[in-house]
Amino acid sequence: MTRRQSLELKPIGIIHSPYKNTEQAPYQGHKSEDISRIEVFREFEEGLQDIEGFSHIIVIYWFHKSQGYHLLVKTPWDDSLHGLFATRSPHRPCPLGLTVVELVAREKNILKVRGLDAIDGTPVLDIKPYIPSIDEGSSIKVGWLKGKLGKEIS
To answer: pLDDT at residue 133 above 90?
Structure first.
């Protein structure tokens, strides 16, 4: 692969969300009780087998409304400039979103989830089970965010 080579991503589904635009979406979805639906395209439905055994899943999606980016950005938590890659800004050179959500129910190819902050119509690129022994690290440092979010981050 060369530096300038592009990648082709094919969505496996689409998000049906109560948020119709970025202004309606919460900064952090895990604080929301709203239910979103992830419609997994029928051709991938078989791949959902056994997913309902997990309480939480990781949803990887494409910020399809994101336009442009800056390498230095301000965040909702302070007025300082931070490097884009040290933030969770949706405005990125490759606008991937990643959120851990609660899996409320599965109905065939539809996953009902709580805690998703993506807007309606967002393409889903992948779904993975959240496995604490794999996904939680130890001795984690949170850099410039330390003390900014209260009890959420140590």
So the answer is: no
Distance, CA of 76 to CA of 87 (rounded, Å): 10
Helical (H) or strand (E) element with 102: strand 96-107
Which contacts qualify for 39-46: CB closer than 8 Å, 24 or more apart?
39/13, 39/14, 39/15, 39/109, 39/110, 40/12, 40/13, 40/109, 40/110, 40/111, 40/124, 40/127, 41/11, 41/12, 41/13, 41/14, 41/109, 42/109, 44/12, 44/13, 44/109, 45/108, 45/109
pLDDT digits (tens, 9 = 90+) for 56-114: 999 999 998 888 999 999 988 888 999 999 988 888 999 999 999 999 999 999 999 99
Judged against a pLDDT cut of 80, whether residue 150 lies above it is answered with no
Kindly report the backbone phi and psi dihedral angles of residue 103, in degrees, each rounded to the nearest multiple of 5, phi listed first: -85, 110
| CATH superfamily for domain 13-131 | YaeB-like (2.40.30.70)
Break the chain into its structural domains and give their ranges: 13-131
List of residues 6+ apart from 153 with CB closer than 8 A = 142, 145, 146
Output the CA torsion 138→117→65→78 (10° steps). Answer: -60
